[in-house]
Amino acid sequence: MAENMTLEQNETKHENPSSLGMPDQEKVIAANALDAFTAGKYEESIKHLEHLQELNKDDYKIAMNKAIADFYKGGQSTTGTLKQTLMAMKNKVHTSVEDIDGLDDVENSLLYYNQAIIHYHMRQYSEAISIGEKLYQFLEPFEKFAQAVCFLLVDLYLLTFQPEKALHLLAVLEKLTVQGGNKNSKGENANISKDGAQKAEFVAMIEAAKSKMHQYKVRAYIQMKSSKACKREIKSVMNTAGNAAPSLFLKSNFEYLRGNYRKAVKLLNSSNIAEHPGAIKTGECVRCMFWNNLGCIHFAMGKHNLGIFYFKKALQENDHTCAQLGDGSNGQSKKFTGIPMCALLANKRYELLYNCGIQLLHIGRPLAAFECLMEAVQVYHSNPRLWLRLAECCIAANKGNSEQESKGLPSKKGIVQSIVGQGYHRKIVLASQSTQNTIYSEGQSAAIPVASMEFAAICLRNGLLLLPEHQQQDAKTENGSKTSSQSGSTESGSENSDACSGKGQETDKFLSAAPSSPLRKQEVENLRCSILACSAYVALALGDNLMALNHAEKLLHQTKLSGSLKFLGHLYAAEALISMDRISDAIGHLNPDNVTDVSLGVAPSEQDQGLDKGDLDPVESCESGKQTPLCYPSSVSSARAMMLFNLGSAYCVRSEYEKARKCLHQAASMVNTKEIPPEAILLGVYLELQNGNTQLALQIIKRNQLLPSTLSTPPPDTRKKPVQSFQPVQPIQMPSSFTQVQRK
Q: Global pTM?
């Protein structure tokens, strides 16, 4: 999904104007400044800080606090200016976060923390994490400030899909909270009457922290797809937070991952989103999340038209929120001025467009999907899976007669183009089936983003270049470390077939694929196979046979290759070789024995097995999915029949008509008469014409089905002399559907 099903707590800046060794007068002024700031009297706080600055001009912390007070006075809408001010202070102090090597440098921690907060709101998560991890090493565990740093780090880990690190930090936080509570209760026993109000405030703070930790744990377990642990934490969240919108959104997400879609919808509808404060105060548009989550649930239910309806509603809410915040076309969002800092994360337009594009691709509207994904790729240009989706849009938009191909051509439509003349001069004009060397975008550069096959080739090249090499991927797995993704917003793709085990040391290296979840090792290999298969198809469509052969051979050499892609790899390689007049090599690829499996996915290994119901992103167009595409053979028998049809055409090109006829009729006996592709019928017509049997060729055209040849070798002899190594084939099975994938 394009949103996390939870409401994130925004971190606030901490002001600490007092320090050790200050004179009493300065301490009083500093305390007054802090009280005024806490009460929201920012002008009064600034006056106190200016007075303090006159007494102590060398302390940069006073200037930092004054800058923060000015920032709050301006409605927190000058984020860019504050970032520059803090950067200038850091340069003045001559320090950087990498130089923190001991407790002596921790006095600058507030400066670093404020910088981390700004990076967080500007979606610069890697920089924020590097600062937060350094601060975490040198902070006193019971400090309130240390708790704020820990919560910021947990949020960042979840946004960058590192749930194991987040859970480890939450366990530390939980222990510190318990210890801190015990320590506080012992200290307050001596002065109960005086500190009663403070104790109540402390207890309330502890309870709020516990509730927040339970919500973070649920988010982490959802990312790990750990059903049992998540169910336990969901109960804790519902007990502490009640039926508030964040807890109901989390529970709905949990039910969504379990496949209980109706219950997920019911939970979303029961949340009172009207009570939410709004994006200006919280930085989150709950209405936008609500419609988006409904769209994702209906996507998983296969109701794609309803899904796109809800995504459009989410986009409308997002645009309305941006208009309220002033995040329009005036370029303010790029300068980070004029918009409250907490609202910088409110705009989810590109995540929603990503979801819309995937949904439109599934309902057969590739051009509309292309427009949505082209806008999304401007932000998420480092996502290899997004480039594959764009290529799939281009392929679907240029596929052509998909309706005819998918329906098995029950009539002569598609074979006979027209009939001319009358009587003795009556002629039948057959339709041309050749689509090779078609120029899809004549007269314009291939780099122009239009839904053409040339642009599809560029998209696939980009996707392939963004994937790591095999050697690099293996090395990353050995290291066991992780990288950060750039956004924590949407769901992962259906290549995701493995769930986290909960042990950080056993997890694979991630490949960032924002706005989706990052890709694990096996998902990267599956994606590589899908891109290679699409690249071979596109190269064939463009007439680049050498490149098509190169892609097909690379595909066939992949270690974990699904049966479906192996089948396509052999077909694409054979077509490229035939076009290059290397018939003998092509015949080797068209051996029916090459087809042993047509499954649409790779069997998961032991470490890859896990819950796999929460994925949103689309399946590989040629590889995986909940339903077999109509243009794809549904069984090994029909796939082998397709191989034999193509093998017959290869023999025909080499003028071995008898072998071609045997292959053709053997393949025809393996499928239903109505499921024989038109190319095979045209091949039968050609063979009968070569045999001099014009009347039988006309009968084949008239009946739109292959007929036994009267002039060829009788069937008993055919059975005695099988075609070299291509017979016998497996026992004949009548498949439910059959149509051709690649035409010859």
A: 0.78
